Amino acid sequence: MSTSTETAPTSTRRGPKPAGQRVAEWADARVGLYKLGKSNLRKIFPDHWSFMLGEICLYSFTILILTGVYLTLFFHPSMNEVVYHGPYGPLQGVRMSDAYASTMHISFEVRGGLLIRQIHHWSALIFIAGMIVHMMRVFFTGAFRKPRELNWLFGWTLLFIGMFEGFTGYSLPDDLLSGTGVRFTEGAVLSTPVVGTYLSMFLFGGEFPGHNFVPIFYSVHILLFPGIMAGLVVAHLILVFYHKHTQFPGAGKTEKNVVGMPLLPIYTAKAGGFFFLVFGAIAAIAAIATINPIWTMGPYRPDQVSTGAQPDWYMGFSEGLIRVMPGWEINAWGHTLVLGVFVPLMVFPLVLAAIAVYPFIESWVTGDKREHHLLDRPRNRPVRTGFGVAWLALYFTLLIGGGNDLWATHFHLSIETITWSVRIGFFVVPAVAFWVTKRICLGLQRRDRDKVLHGRETGIIKRLPHGEFIEVHEPLGQEELHVLTAHDQYKPLEIGPETDENGVERKAGPVTRLRARLSRNFYGEHSQIPKPTVEEYDEITSGDGHH
Amino acid sequence: MKKLSARRRHPLAALVVLLFALAATGGLYAALSPAPKAQADESSQSTQITEGQKLFSVGCASCHGTHGQGSSDGPSLVGVGSAAVDFQVGTGRMPAQQAGPQIQKKPKQYSQDEIDQLAAYIASLGPGPIAPASNQYDPAGGDAAKGGELFRTNCSQCHNFVGKGGALTDGKYAPTLKGVEPKHIYEAMQTGPQNMPSFPDTTMPQQQKQDIIAYLHEVDTAQSKNPGGFTLGSFGPVPEGLFAYIFGLGTLIAIAAWVAARTTKAKKS
């Protein structure tokens, strides 16, 4: 044998090692690549389209960074006044800020500039829409439960910062639409009691619009927020890796395993391919449809405004809050408290916080401290599902309020009617949505129970020899039965007996009582339909099928 | 056929039938509903004012009074001038179809000759804004950039950045300016129809009106360039958000479902 010194004794291959292996070994010796790979390359990810919603967010975030870097090469974050002499006719000789002029330059003169701008902006809308839908998937399937509460908060923080990342981004071109939004923000800042005027002076460096806000927003938009978000994304992914992915219930799937495809090669290939599909789809949309055509809006001037001045959709619910809030104000001791602006400003974070704290409220109410890796079917948790739908209903109601003028013109309605409907709907719609959703969930649970015990109605009517007509029911397969019956049904928390073993009255504080009452709401007899027991199933299926 | 028959009890069969039924009903309606008919009228050759008065007595006097003095159903027309008549009748707003928050634009009911006769009659009732000559409203004679600034200062708060229209109070609205003839835009500014403020030559000289018309011609006609692709109506972020959800996220979720469905698992059956 003429083995060279590099060849491992176990290798049967002759000659020098392939280049790939040499690189890998070089890396392994320095960063411990093999050990890392051994434990992670076979990591299993379950396959379901709804588990790829988070990927859509990750990829659109990546696209945002790539296109954003390109845009920074040409954008001037400056509010110096210039006169436009570019190729766009209807703005010839118009005075504008350097920020607006450079965005015009990107849109009309930089090669591929307009396409990149539109990819950037469409990705931003899709990124945040993806985060909302991803969050709703996690919410409705109960994937936020222990041990994933922290990751829920990471994700929520990404959404929250993402909204302001978007706001600072679309404000940069200093056009008439976004300038109106910045003016609105100034009004919101001013409405803050006591410190409002100081905050506004600090932000704008004097009277609005000043010369400050574009450079400030620029730093925040390209450095501060993306930095925080990139960190959170990494932390989010590390936790997904560490916790392993959740999975839907099904035959062979337990709290202790993960059924799916290994990271390498299958999942990597799929995820990598999906990135290009996402990039391609967004690029196609950006090539087809205009977004934020700043050239039609003109440069910002505080004395101009246009109708239809809405923020991007993710800020739409805050626009709705401000549009439907009555213009109340209190004047006292020479000061004005503008409730019409200040109340919406305070409700805005509360709307988002309501969904953020839900996992903690649920685990406190139900006393559930176990780990969960199997997902819930939304119908089996009617109260949670009802709450989620109520939140979405509130969000959508406020979106209607934010676009009340377009709803009015396109549906031939009076804008006041819409505003009043949203005012009432703000309180009524979530309650109705909660109740309706809960009833639907209970109905679906009953249907599941019925299907397990009696099978599926086939619609085939059979006439028996003695003349009776029956509908043929098709029994469900084992897999389907498993899905319908695998979930746990919880018992509500009990306060315990009124008196202890010595007959002395036990004290239950108001918090304990509240918790027991909420728990009854979650898991009491009005909130879930008992799933069929083994005995019930045996009794019914042991007969002749005629029941 | 056998395949179809075997699947008619499928849980989704009802949904499929419903979709077919909806598509069929909608399709038939679109195909068979009557198309609006255009009306043509001839005019006679007599003196403008007398002919106009005759037309007025037939078509307008029931609301505006026999001598244009107005009634409980319509305002006085003394002093509104020929420009107002040319705008109101020329855009089909008059004669009004029905009462409502606002009189709407519709196909015009009189020929241009008849409108000129009506205008001549109304102008004879009292002095008012005169319908412009074509060199006053020709878009070629205006500066689109100046017009854009004027439009954003005076018009866009109701009519949107590029004249797509917007909502006013109590069901009233500022209509879209797309497809409105330059002459009618000029007359609207001159006379201030319905909720619109008027911009007489004393506050907005003729050249500025022409600049605005030039701007609208540049950004809001079929010839306007849309470098970004489809404009989604130019209504700003609301349709953009809707588009991002339906076509953006919708496409991506469809792709995700496609990717997730294609996997290496062993075939069932």
Automatic annotation (TrEMBL), chain A:
Its cofactor is heme. This is Cytochrome bc1 complex cytochrome b subunit. Its EC number is 7.1.1.8. SUPFAM superfamilies: Transmembrane di-heme cytochromes. It comes from Actinacidiphila epipremni. It catalyses: a quinol + 2 Fe(III)-[cytochrome c](out) = a quinone + 2 Fe(II)-[cytochrome c](out) + 2 H(+)(out). Residues 1-13 have a biased composition (Polar residues). The chain crosses the membrane at residues 49-75, 121-140, 152-172, 216-242, 274-295, 337-361, 382-400, 420-437. Residues 1-20, 528-547 are annotated as: Disordered. Residues 23-249 form the Cytochrome b/b6 N-terminal region profile domain. Keywords: Membrane, Transmembrane, Transmembrane helix.
From TrEMBL, chain B:
It is a multi-pass membrane protein. The keyword Signal applies. It is found in: Cell membrane. Residues 47-126, 142-220 form the Cytochrome c domain. InterPro entries: bc1_cytC-su, Cyt_c-like_dom, Cyt_c-like_dom_sf, Cytochrome_c_Oxidase_Subunit. It catalyses: a quinol + 2 Fe(III)-[cytochrome c](out) = a quinone + 2 Fe(II)-[cytochrome c](out) + 2 H(+)(out). Keywords: Cell membrane, Electron transport, Heme, Iron, Membrane, Metal-binding, Repeat, Respiratory chain, Signal, Translocase, Transmembrane, Transmembrane helix, Transport. Residues 1-30 form the signal peptide. Its EC number is 7.1.1.8. Gene3D superfamilies: Cytochrome c-like domain. The chain crosses the membrane at residues 242-261. The cytochrome bc1 complex is composed of a cytochrome b (QcrB), the Rieske iron-sulfur protein (QcrA) and a diheme cytochrome c (QcrC) subunit. This is Cytochrome bc1 complex cytochrome c subunit. It comes from Actinacidiphila epipremni. The lineage of its organism: Bacteria, Bacillati, Actinomycetota, Actinomycetes, Kitasatosporales.
